[in-house]
What does this fold into?
Amino acid sequence: NAGVTQTPKFRVLKTGQSMTLLCAQDMNHEYMYWYRQDPGMGLRLIHYSVGEGTTAKGEVPDGYNVSRLKKQNFLLGLESAAPSQTSVYFCASSYSQKSGTGYQETQYFGPGTRLLVL
Amino acid sequence: QKEVEQDPGPLSVPEGAIVSLNCTYSNSAFQYFMWYRQYSRKGPELLMYTYSSGNKEDGRFTAQVDKSSKYISLFIRDSQPSDSATYLCAMTYMNRDDKIIFGKGTRLHILP
It folds into this structure.
């Protein structure tokens, strides 16, 4: 199993350009997530998906769009990149299992995409 | 008050020492508590998780949860240079669709 993979690994964009980050997982997980990680800010949830064809906003969704056309793929789009979107982007997928009286969710992260917007 | 607070460090300790990493939180509804390890330029990986209060041990790692104090800890015994990484605490509620809330991470350096 490859786990969670992300492409590209690194990208430089000019302000106003667009791009799509691809996340793929081969673990048949229902849930997938996009985070950004900035120094001093920790991991912040951008968008997430609870299944094929569904998406929802996270903590910092502005300036990003997502799509989940296939269960194994989760795409993050930047329509018009801004310097404030310079960050490291992590994709994660998760499965859930009953634990105690609730559910234990285990997230698996990809290796990250480093994006620099000039 | 932030939901999850974690000292960013860096924390430098000599090889072989016992390391203590901590997080405090404000929401008493959290039930699941996790520790992730993140090496430089890599994605976080799940290290340990515990449900509700108590201790959990896995090799050199012990996770401890004190819900009455809203305080969680990760202890690393016999620390090794390979333990040098950023450690993120994380927590969530009980329901299936609840999001995981992450701390900002503590950078740990184990000095050979």
Chain A touches chain B at residues 4, 40-43, 45, 48, 50, 58, 90, 92, 96, 99-112 (CB under 8 Å). The first strand of chain A starts at residue 4 and ends at 7. Chain A has a mean pLDDT of 92. Chain A is about 0% helix and 60% strand.
